[in-house]
Fold:
Amino acid sequence: MKKQILFLVIFLVTCFNIYSQDIRWLRIGQLQTPINEIGAEYENEFPQGNTNYLSWPALYGIDQNTCRMRGLWIGCKDFYDPVEKKLKGVKVIGSGPRDFSDRVNQIFEEEIKLVGKNLHPVVIVDDQKAGALDNYDMLDSIDENLPCDRMVIVKFNTSIGISVTKKVYAFSQPNHDDYIIHEYIFKNTGIYNRAGNVYKQTLKDVWFYFVYRYAFAGVTSSGYGSTWGAFSSTWGNSTINHAFGFNPNAPEFNDPNSPIYKMRGFYSWYGPNRDRPVSYDEDWGCPNESEDGVLGSAKFAGCVTLHADVSAKDKNDDIYQPKTTWFIGSDINAMQANVSQYDEVFMMDRYDIMREGHAPKQHDEVVGNDYPINYTDPRRQTGGGTSQGQGFGPYTLEPGDSIRIVFAEAVSGLSWEMARIVGNNWLQWRNNSPSKPPLILPDGSPTQNHNLYKKLWVYTGKDSILKVFRSAIKNFNSNFKIPQAPPPPKTFKVTSGGDRIKLEWADNATSWPNFNGYVIYRAEGRVLDYRTKYEKIFECDKSNVVHSFDDRTAKRGFDYYYFIQTKDDGSQNDIEPGKPLYSSPFWTITTRPATLQRPPVTSTLDSVRVVPNPYDIRARIFQFGDKSQYDRIAFYGLPPVCKLKIFTERGDLIWEKDHTRGTGDELWDSLTKYGQIVSSGIYILYVETPDGRSVIRKFVIIR
Structure:
C-alpha cells in the first residue's frame, strides 16, 4: 500500500512538472488575461473560472471570461526530421488548444517575463496593502521607453526548427484597454530539441495557424453549480462566429464608410443555447429570467489582423492574409489531445485544416436564425461548439529567415449597467408587468416587441467590437504613439474612522501636461463583482485640486471599496476629442474593506453589546441591506484591544478573533471558524481584555 501511495505521489509530481506552465498576468485594463510560456493558452490550464481567458469588463471581476482555449499550430511540407532521420511529407507541431504529453517534445520554453513602464501604485487600507495588482502585476523588469504600459515577452523553440518570439502589449489608456496586441516573430533557426541542437534546412509551404474557442458563460455558469446560464455555454456550445475582410476586392473592404473598411478579422458571440429554459428568441444575451433579467453574455470577442509579412524577403503587410478563415468543430479529432508529431496521418489532417482557405458561407450565415446545427462535413461537427481558425501562409523560410504576424484580440459589448437596464425592461414585458417601461431601440425608435428590443441591444456589441478593432489599428499604425492619461497617484491610502473614512493620495500627477484633477468612485458591499455598483463621490479640477478627501456619507456596518483616477482636460483624447482621459481604475482600486468605526471604550466593559439582538433572518434586509452583508452581526462598545470568542449555548467554541484595531466595533458574518453559516439558537459572546477583564453577552439568531 505504501509503495502504491509513493508511486501515486511521484506520478502526480511528474505530471505537474510536465503540464504546469509559467505565466504572467496582464491586469491593468478592462481586458485582462494570463499569458503562458508556450505560445497558446490551453483548456483547463488555470484553476479559476470555467473559461479561463480574456476577462471583460474586468472592473466587475476576473470571472467575466470569454475564451475557453487558444491554439497555435506550425506546419510545413517536405521536412527532414533530424530525430527520425528521414524526410517526411508533412510536419505539424503545436501548442494547444488542449495540452498533451508530446508537447514537451515539440515546444521548448526559453523565457517569459513581464515588463512594465513603471511600478503600480502602493494602495493601503487601514495600514495593510490592499491593491488589486499586488499579487498579479509582478514585474520582471521596468522599461520607461516601453511602447505600452505592460508587455509580456515569451520565447521558445520548436521541434520543427522554428524559434518563436511573442510579445503581448497591454494598454491602460481608456480608449485602448479593451484589447491586447499579439506580435509573433517566427524564425528558422534550425533548433529542433530541448538541448538546442541545430539542423539547418529550408522550410517549404510553412503555415501558421491560430484557433480560438470563445465561450461566453462568464458569471452565468460556474461549471459545477450553474447560476442561471447553461453549463454547456462554458465550452462555447452555442458560440457563433463571423469572419470578414478576407476578400480585399470586395466593395465593403474598400468603402471608407463601411464598418469593416480595410479590416480583416473575425468576431464571435453568444448564440441562444438549447439547454436554457427559455425560448430561442428569449435567450439572446443569456438573461437571468428568474430574477432581474440581467444579461450575462451580451458581449463580442474576436481578432483583427494588424500585419502579416508578404514573405521572408518582403516585410510589407499582405492584405490577403490570413488565407484560411474557416470555422471548425471544437471537439473534432484534430483539436484533441492525442497529438503525435510522428503520426503523419494526424499531422496531414491538421495541415489541411491550416491551409483550407475561406468558407463559402460564414458560420453565422450557415446557422441562420436557429440553434447551431451539425454539419455533414466532419470538420464542422459541433457537439462541443464551434471555434474560429485563422491560417497564415504559405511561406518559404530559408535558414535565418523570419515571418512577423501581428493581431489585436478584443472584447466589447454592453456594459453591466446597460445589461441590467435592458434585461430588466425585457423581463417586465415578458412577465406582463402592469407598469411596463417603454422599450427604446438603439436607433431611438420605440417598439413593443421585447425580444427584438433585447436582441438588437445585444447586437450593438458588434458595432462596439469593430470600434475597438479600429482603435487597435490606429494605435498600431501610429507605432503606439497614443496620448497618455496623467499617471495615477503613486500612493493611495484609505483609513477607516469613527465619523468618516479618510482618503489621501500623492501629488505626482500635478506636473503632468494637461492635468486637470481627480475623481473618486466608491462601491458598497462588493468589489470586482458583476453585481457591484460604483458611485462617483468626489471630483476636483486643477483649479481646486486637493490630495485628501473625507467620505462622510459612509454608513456604519457596511464595507466600502474605492478607486481614484487622475484626469486631463480633454485636449488629448485620440478617439473622442474633448472627453477627458482618465487613468485606469485598476491602478488604485482597493480590495480590502474600509468601514465606519466607533471609538473604543477604555474605562468599562459595560458598553459591550450585540446588534441586532435578536438577529432575525426575515428582517435582514433592514439591517445592512446588501445581500453580500445579509448575515452580518455587529459587536459595539469594545475596548481597543481584546479577544472575542463566540460559543454555542452548550459551550462549543465556534469562532474567535483578536480585536487589535483600536476601535470600538467588530463585525461577524455569522460563519463558524470552519466557514459554516450558524443555525438558529442562543449564542454567547465572550470578550476578554489583555489585563484579564471579561464580559459575556448572550444573543439570539433566528433563521
In short: Residues 1-19 have pLDDT under 50 and may be disordered. The CA atoms of residues 515 and 568 lie 4 Å apart. Residues 2-119+135-413 form one domain. The longest strand covers residues 65-81.
